[in-house]
Amino acid sequence: MSEEILKALMQLFAIIAKQDVGLSTNEREFVENFLRQQLNESSVKEYLALFDEYVGDKKASENDNDQDQKPKLTSVKDSVKTLGIAKKINKTLTQKQKVVVLVRLFELVNSDKKFTPQRMAIIDTAAEVFNISKEEYNAIETFVVQEDASKWDIPEILIINSEETSPEKAKHISSPQLDGTILVLRIQSVELYFLRYTSTKELLLNGLPINNLKIYLFARGSVIKQPKGKPIFHTDIVSKFLSDDTSINVHFKVEKVHYRFPNGHIGLREVNIEEQSGKMLAIMGASGSGKTTLLNVMSGMSKPTTGSVNINGNDLHEKNELIKGIIGYIPQDDLLIEELTVYENLYYSTKLVYRDLTDEDIEGKVNRVLFNLGLSHIKHLKVGDPLNKEISGGQRKRLNIGLELIREPAVLFVDEPTSGLSSRDSENVMELLRELTVRGKLIFVVIHQPSSEIFKMFDNVTILDDGGYQIYYGNPVEAVIYFKELDNQINSHIGECPSCGNVNPETIFSIIESRIVDEYGQPTSGRKVTPAEWYEHFKNKISINKITGMFDKLPESFKKPNWLNQYKIFFTRDFVAKISNKQYLVLNLLEAPLLGFLLAFVIRYIEDPTSDVYIFRNNDNIMPYIFMCTIVALFLGLIVSAEEIFKDRKILKRESFLDLSRSSYLCSKIGILFILSAIQAFLFIIVGNYILGIKGMYFEYWLVFFSLAAFANVLGLNISSAFNSAITIYILIPFLIIPQMVLTGAMFSFDKINRAIGGGQEKVPIIAEIMPSRWAFEGLVVNQYKNNKYYEDFYSKRKLESALYYKDVYYINELKRYVEDYKFRLASGHEEPISADDLELLRNEISKEHESEFTQYHDYRFDYFDKLTPENFNSEIADSLTNYLNRVHEFYRDRFNFVNETIDQEIVSRTRTPEMEEEYQQLRNNYHNRYLASFAKNEMAPLPVVRLGNKLVQKSDPIYLDPQNQRLMNFRSHFLAPRKHFAGNLFDTFYFNLAILWIFTLLLYLALYYKLFSKFIFVAENGLPFLRTKLKSTKNKIQDFLIKQTGI
Amino acid sequence: MKTPVMTKKTVTVSLMLSGFILLFFMACAPDRREEATDLLSDRDISEDIQLTDETIGEIITSVPNPVEMTVLLQRSNVVYTQDLLNPTANINNYNTNFKRSLNLGVYGTDLVYMNIYDRTVATLSYLRNVKNLAEDLRIGQFFDYETLNRLSESSRNVDSVLYITNRGFDGMSNYLINQGRSSIAVLIATGTWIESLYIATNVQIHPPNKELIHQRIGEQKVVLDNLLLLMSNFRNDEQFEELFNDLLDLKKEFDKVSIQYIYEERTTKVVDDKVVVVDNSRSEVNIDDEIVEGIAQQVEYIRNKIVE
Lengths: 1048, 308
Known about the structure:
The complex is a heterodimer of chains A (1048) and B (308).
Chain A: H1 3-18, H2 25-38, H3 41-55, H4 58-64, H5 76-92, H6 95-110, H7 117-129, H8 134-145, E1 157-161, E2 171-174, E3 182-187, E4 192-197, E5 204-205, E6 208-209, E7 216-217, E8 223-225, E9 232-233, H9 234-242, E10 251-260, E11 266-276, E12 280-285, H10 291-298, E13 306-311, E14 314-315, H11 320-323, E15 327-330, H12 342-353, H13 359-373, H14 393-405, E16 411-415, H15 423-438, E17 442-446, H16 452-457, E18 460-465, E19 469-474, H17 476-486, H18 505-512, E20 515-517, E21 523-527, H19 531-541, H20 563-580, H21 582-602, H22 622-641, H23 644-655, H24 662-692, H25 698-722, H26 726-742, H27 766-769, H28 772-786, H29 795-827, H30 836-851, H31 875-910, H32 914-927, H33 930-936, E22 945-948, E23 951-954, E24 979-982, E25 985-988, H34 989-1009, H35 1012-1046
Parallel strand pairs in A: 1-2, 12-17, 12-18, 15-16, 16-17
Antiparallel strand pairs in A: 1-3, 3-4, 4-7, 5-6, 5-8, 8-9, 10-11, 10-13, 13-14, 18-19, 20-21, 22-23, 24-25
Chain B: H1 8-27, H2 53-62, H3 66-75, H4 97-116, H5 120-136, H6 145-151, H7 158-179, H8 182-202, H9 207-232, H10 238-254, E1 258-262, E2 267-271, E3 274-278, E4 282-286, H11 289-307
């Protein structure tokens, strides 16, 4: 309490005390005691002096003759003063503290039982200024002032006494050995509890004796201990007040559950548990005894091999859709999103759970839960990771529990809630859970080495032993007795320490696991009692109580938000988390433009050593730049996404109970990543293209960069959902990127790679067809070459020119050569003047020539096409063929000249005047890149035409060559084709390749949705044992079926 | 999360995505922009060819090879200077077939000049220019760039380089003439000739050899007449017309040169036991410094116009 408040309080006390009859000794004593509770000895004196000063000199005189004094009205001066002080308090104290102040004021007056109108008027004024409701004011008054037991019967009060019968309105707890009455007042608006005791008998509140004249704040976790009889916990009292909360009554039954791991090991053997709402059960056992397995089976995450788990008669593993909403699971690890604040973590979880609530309702709910968890004061702190702590371990754990509490599941599973926490934090957490049971929750807790305090909090405990044997089920304290008896120990009937009430759960485990001692006194590895023997004892001695009665119907379905809303929530949650991680954001947004700058600046090459003017046309590095764009896009895309799902996996596990849509989660992830990638693409391209002077292509570059990064995003999500460690994921990245680099077509020509994988063929090797990098790269190169502002006017003519040139210079000459060879060999008396293969080639090529688009413009046909067979081919046919080829050749030559001249004329006309020439030159320098052109025209190809099998394939000018043999569904083509063929149509390569990229992305999304990667890895890892068990179970099923059918 | 079952939503999402991709296809549907086949339709070939291709070929062959002039210069101890050559960066300015052909000749001459003077490093960029221009003109197949590149690495291979270069140029002109593109062959020859004349008229020549070189310059009068004959064949083209007129101006300068054919009796003599007839006739070229200066100016004018 601050100095200022204390001063204000002293003033208030003084004003009340000096009214009418004035200060009494009792009142002064009260003030002194009050100060003593707050302060050390020296300060007490100081403030007491202050109090006396405020009361004034009235004290001395009035003390003597208070009997004679007539009651006076409250002076106006005092009323004004009260108002002033109360307002001052209003500004600094929370509502809770104000309630406490009000109670203290009542207490002050009560200390001497002088309830004069003047005094009450002042308290009234204070209460009014404090905004305390009339009902609560009256309740406080009743609670503090009333001595008449019959007046206590109001709903705000709980009465604890030895009577059996309950009062009408007030809550009641019967404690047979209690002397007198304990009154507990609940101020609902601030959720505060006050306590007072009417008897002078010894009673301990948190270990300190209770004074019957005082009023105590009954804080969370408090316990009242009486010399005889059961202690009364805070939770017991709270539960009375909250018992009218609507929560469904649950009957949870685990029946003969067996569990066998996929690798064949037995995890659980015939485990039985039966519990109902309002209980807390501990699952204990040595490590490896199957505690967590049991928890997983009970919570529906693993399906038992045999046996069943029932909730109110519904099989959890059959109708998991139905039951998911009422089960909560708190795993051992944190489920928090580290980048979000305490409040935000809870807020988004809440939004995911409640469809119908408005934002204000959700805010209210979240604040209430935070308050109940004692986390209000840190709600705006970031959670942070465990190494870089912002909030303590206990607070993290409580927040984790809060995430589940917010949706109020009827059954809660908690895995080792106290591990890694201090004993104080552990107790806090367990008390929190205990409190939940009083609200009607059923809680299962896996716990390891609980302290005595915690151990006693459980209603029941079940103990598992190695190999999944259930060896105990029942009351925790009795567990100690049970095992002591079986171990034939002295004092075996005493469960807890008679003097201190401690129970040592360790005793149980030292009995269970005690070893046989050899003749030297050394413990051996053998156990005195094996798990199977313990299990026999358990079966014989302990029977599980059957729970009967009516149970509520389970709620039909959970009120989760629809797909779109889930998407929105996931999206905002992720977005806020990303935004709040400054480092992540800055790095990701700076990375792209920096890389773009670095790359472009380094390769901004000026060819002419004597000049300083950068000319795009002469920059050797545009093709490598495009290549690097694809690699950077892949890298950035993978890196931002590779850890996304992996990071969330724990949260996903928890949210699996919420029965949320996976696709909405994935789409929200993808949405955020796409936005990030789009921004990165934008920054990279705008910097890179600007520096390199790639004009008028920003959008196309951006689109390809973004599409490829988007592909990489989804690929990254796939691996991040499939692998279980960050290091594996990062090891995998080079494996995903390097093949893409190699098979882009930029580093190694497809003509010059290993023939075993399709190198040097007509089409792009199949292995490169599945490389998105090559589709992106090809799309950009083709687009840069043919759709730039300079070249788009010429492209179609150049294409025609190229086709004619190829025919004229290479193709027809090549065909002629075969005929010439034939003639030469024939003349020199060769046995086989022409091979069948060569004839086949001629047939193929002439037939292609007959179908060529050029045949519309000439009518030269080879009439003896049918004679191009080994039997029929002779010198006459050869002459006729030569003749045909000559004529076609002439046609091509003629048309080539014409097209070439036409293009030249156009250039001439565009460069008529020096100004026009300058303009033309500028256009060419700014938009056309020589080296890219050389690459696109495959000028480095060793041969312009090659023989593949019995066909001739054009290798020169791929950029001008439309895909050959366009069969219906064939979409494959040679590298750098200007257009792509599919389903009888030709499409611009740029858009076609983009479409392919997005198809890849879509396929990967489906793989992600159906978890194909993780399934694949699972099969790869567990292949044999998995198949074996599958086989076995199928066999069993068939047997069962046969038995049923045949009745044998 | 829901276990991966194809829910209605996924179906919708997949359908939507597939729809987008389909749209993609439709948006860029059948792309016919690339067709320029109207150029293939029948057309009138109305070129006013007066000379046959054969004649053109013969005349082009008569244009002297730049090697002769350069070797002469070198033997006359003329100092090498690269400043005279057409800068390699100029290649960026050549956009039309006309310019490309002329400058292919110019760079060809420069290449020869450099090779003879053993300037191997700079030679490579001239070699590349020759190759690039040839490719732009669609006659690149006659240049074995790889081999030339390799040979140029050592000055011992000068002979081979020159041989291959010459063969390349000869091949190109033959091919062009056969191809019906003789105008280009004529321009290449003109470029070659102008450049070698330009070099010859611009180098510093020391007195003892001056006479001989001036004689050689004067002899070009005959070559120019032949070139003009070729040029006149293509005068209907604006660009040819301009060049033709410039060459006519040059002819005016050359007209000041007089060439006298002096007839002498043939004599016989015995060489290695064989009788050999020796033709003693010779032409006498009358040329003075002033005429050379006049020619030089006009050549420089034409040449600078070509390479600009």
